[in-house]
């Protein structure tokens, strides 16, 4: 692209990044979201499209991400290691302790 065009039309942010309210620009969700079982500490890869579909369908509390049961007989709900929901909530799970933290988006008004 020509230099004069770059000055007229600067790129706001790369398309591979998303804005996080406290941490600035973060990578968008990958093709697979890694879920962690807090009991047995095993991980499972779930396609991002499936997780986002369940995130849109859930009309409950947005401070909890879509969760799935552990397939290894633990009968515990797994949580995502890192995931940005459709409403802008950022969910992160500590792999050592299995505790999840939710960071809410800042209001835009």
TL;DR of this structure?
With 109 residues, this protein is α+β, with helices and mostly antiparallel strands. It has helices spanning 3-8, 48-57, and strands at residues 17-20, 24-27, 32-36, 43-47, 68-69, 77-80, 82-84, 90-93, 100-103.
Written overview of the protein:
The protein has one domain. It is of the alpha+beta class and 109 residues long. The termini are far apart. It contains 2 helices and 9 strands. The mean pLDDT is 78. Helices cover 15% and strands 32% of the residues. The strands form 3 sheets. A 4-stranded antiparallel sheet has the order 4-3-6-5.
Characteristics of this structure?
three-stranded antiparallel sheet; single chain; 109 residues; alpha+beta
Gyration radius, in Å: 17 Å
Number of H/I helices: 2
Q: Strand percentage, roughly?
A: 25-35%
Domain module count? 1
Total DSSP E strands:
9
């Amino acid at each position: 692209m020509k230099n004069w065009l770059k000055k007229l039309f600067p790129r706001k942010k790369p398309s591979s990044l998303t804005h996080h309210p406290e941490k600035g620009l973060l990578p968008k969700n990958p093709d697979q979201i890694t879920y962690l079982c807090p009991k047995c500490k095993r991980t499972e890869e779930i396609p991002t499209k499936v997780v986002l579909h369940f995130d849109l369908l859930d009309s409950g509390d947005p401070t909890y991400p879509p969760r799935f049961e552990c397939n290894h007989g633990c009968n515990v709900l797994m949580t995502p290691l890192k995931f940005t929901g459709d409403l802008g909530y950022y969910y992160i799970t500590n792999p050592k302790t299995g505790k999840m933290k939710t960071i809410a988006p800042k209001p835009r008004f």
